[in-house]
Design a protein that fits this description.
By secondary structure, the chain is α+β, with helices and mostly antiparallel strands. The chain is built from one helix and five strands; from the N terminus they run E-E-E-E-E-H. Strands 1, 2, 3, 4 and 5 form a five-stranded antiparallel β-sheet that branches.
Length: 73
C-alpha cells in the first residue's frame, strides 16, 4: 500500500495479489481509497490488473487524485 497527502486528503493506492495458481505469474489488482480527517470519503473498486505491485499502487493513487480534482472542494 502506498499513501500520500493530496489537497488536504489522505489517499492510498492498493495492490492486491491475484495469483490463482502457483504456476501463474503474479498479477496485482489496483484500487484506491480516499479519507479526510480520518473519515472515509470514497473507494474505487478494482481499477485493473497490473504486472507489478508498484504499477497497481500508482494506478490507485492516480484514481484518487483524479477523483479529488473532480469532486473535492
Amino acid at each position: 500500500m502506498e499513501a500520500e497527502r493530496y489537497k488536504g486528503y489522505s489517499i492510498w493506492g492498493h495492490a492486491i495479489l491475484q495469483q490463482e495458481d502457483i504456476l501463474q505469474l503474479e498479477r496485482y489488482a489496483a484500487s484506491g481509497t480516499i479519507t479526510r480527517n480520518n473519515t472515509f470519503i470514497e473507494a474505487s473498486g478494482v481499477l485493473g490488473h497490473f504486472d507489478t505491485e508498484d504499477e497497481a499502487q500508482q494506478a490507485g493513487l492516480s484514481w484518487a487524485r483524479a477523483w479529488i480534482d473532480n469532486h473535492g472542494e
